[in-house]
């Protein structure tokens, strides 16, 4: 089942130049108007995922409400800024035109002036306030989104904005009215870990997630996994005192096949269970006596662009976490700081 909401950003590209020196000496090629309709498409399963989990465990209602509030700036059809690049496709794929604009709205109209040419157009929304950077974007074939990794501890913070991207070949012709539809799709995703702490008496928790891409190639819409950073999960405050919740926003995990952006599917988040864990949560629980128990939860389902996944677990008195989902395996190390451990096969 597909869940999406869309907005259209109409952008009028006028090519009325005085000289059009970038095209040729015949200025008649520069008199037409070129229309670009930008549609930001949010395809996500967040509402369905939360409703499904609450229907099977009604105690999670407070968790679901808190997560909706925590992620309202991630899974949204609102764009703060947009970065527009137009690349040469006839020779060297260098950028021929570049503009950035502040949106802060659902709809805006702009007038851009670019010469008649064959282009590859790439658009990125919500990059200015993100931890992710747009890099190597002077050429189309190297342009990418990258989440810088700290070389010292290999830890990155959770992303704080929903990122959207698009790419579209454009043949702008002289003397012809043209309209181009540019659809932007979500490039990142989110997951959360809800732990039932009833009768566990744990002093403190630290949670990290890993197994996710650290970058996104814009031209071919694929993710790369050069590093395996640990994503520091943010605690989401729950009022009921029973559950503790952690959430992280990041690029997708590896998939059974190549990890690509989700652009159109009747069931974009339905997938078979993999033979091994594709991503994981690592939980460090500090007991009252100061000892630490480490639990690694390995998830055998991919986390795809635009997807939200809630993982549930029960915390035992020894600090170990027992997963509730059948596609999640656990590996537990008691007195982790002393190296005593046992494993449960994934």
3D structure, described in words:
The chain contains two helices and 24 strands. The chain has 346 residues and is mainly β. The longest helix is centred in the N-terminal third of the chain and has 11 residues, at 46-56. Mean pLDDT is 86; it is low at 1-29 and 339-346. It is 6% helix and 44% strand. The chain has helices at residues 46-56, 61-70, and strands at residues 4-14, 33-43, 79-88, 95-105, 111-112, 117-125, 133-135, 144-146, 155-157, 164-172, 178-186, 189-196, 204-210, 215-217, 222-224, 230-232, 234-236, 243-250, 279-286, 292-299, 308-315, 321-323, 328-333, 342-343. The two termini are 29 Å apart. Strand 21 and strand 22 (321-323) form a beta hairpin. It has an eight-stranded mixed beta sheet with strand order 4-3-6-10-11-2-1-5, with no helix packed on it.
Strand and helix layout:
Layout: E1 4-14, E2 33-43, H1 46-56, H2 61-70, E3 79-88, E4 95-105, E5 111-112, E6 117-125, E7 133-135, E8 144-146, E9 155-157, E10 164-172, E11 178-186, E12 189-196, E13 204-210, E14 215-217, E15 222-224, E16 230-232, E17 234-236, E18 243-250, E19 279-286, E20 292-299, E21 308-315, E22 321-323, E23 328-333, E24 342-343
Parallel strand pairs: 1-5, 2-11, 9-16, 12-21
Antiparallel strand pairs: 1-2, 3-4, 3-6, 6-10, 7-8, 8-14, 10-11, 12-18, 13-16, 13-19, 14-15, 17-18, 19-20, 20-23, 21-22, 23-24
Quick take:
With 346 residues, the protein is mostly beta strands. The chain has helices at residues 46-56, 61-70, and strands at residues 4-14, 33-43, 79-88, 95-105, 111-112, 117-125, 133-135, 144-146, 155-157, 164-172, 178-186, 189-196, 204-210, 215-217, 222-224, 230-232, 234-236, 243-250, 279-286, 292-299, 308-315, 321-323, 328-333, 342-343.
């Amino acid at each position: 089942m597909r869940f999406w909401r869309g907005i259209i950003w109409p952008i009028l590209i006028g090519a009325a130049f005085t000289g059009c020196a970038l095209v040729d000496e015949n200025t008649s090629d520069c008199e037409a108007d070129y229309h670009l309709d930008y549609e930001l498409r949010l395809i996500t399963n967040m509402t369905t995922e939360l409703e499904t989990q609450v229907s099977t465990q009604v105690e999670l209602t407070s968790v679901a409400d808190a997560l909706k509030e925590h992620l309202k700036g991630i899974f949204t059809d609102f764009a703060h800024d947009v970065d527009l690049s137009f690349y040469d496709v006839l020779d060297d794929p260098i950028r021929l035109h570049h503009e950035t604009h502040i949106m802060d709205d659902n709809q805006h109209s702009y007038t851009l002036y670019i010469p008649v040419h064959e282009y590859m157009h790439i658009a990125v929304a919500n990059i200015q306030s993100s931890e992710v950077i747009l890099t190597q974007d002077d050429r189309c074939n190297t342009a990418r989104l990258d989440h810088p990794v700290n070389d010292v501890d290999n830890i990155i913070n959770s992303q704080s904005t929903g990122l959207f991207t698009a790419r579209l070949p454009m043949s702008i012709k002289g003397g012809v009215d043209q309209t181009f539809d540019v659809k932007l799709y979500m490039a990142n995703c989110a997951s959360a870990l809800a732990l039932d702490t009833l009768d566990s008496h744990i002093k403190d928790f630290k949670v990290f997630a890993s197994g996710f891409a650290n970058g996104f190639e814009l031209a071919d819409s694929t993710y790369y996994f050069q590093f395996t950073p640990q994503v520091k999960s943010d605690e989401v405050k729950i009022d009921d005192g029973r559950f503790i919740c952690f959430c992280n926003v990041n690029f997708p995990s590896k998939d059974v096949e190549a990890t690509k952006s989700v652009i159109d599917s009747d069931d974009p988040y339905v997938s078979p269970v993999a033979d091994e864990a594709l991503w994981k949560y690592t939980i460090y629980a500090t007991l009252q006596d100061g000892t630490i128990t480490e639990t690694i939860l390995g998830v055998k389902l991919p986390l795809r662009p635009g997807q939200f996944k809630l993982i549930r677990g029960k915390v035992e008195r020894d600090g170990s976490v027992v997963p509730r989902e059948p596609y999640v395996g656990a590996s537990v190390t008691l007195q982790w700081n002393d190296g005593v451990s046992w494993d449960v096969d994934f």
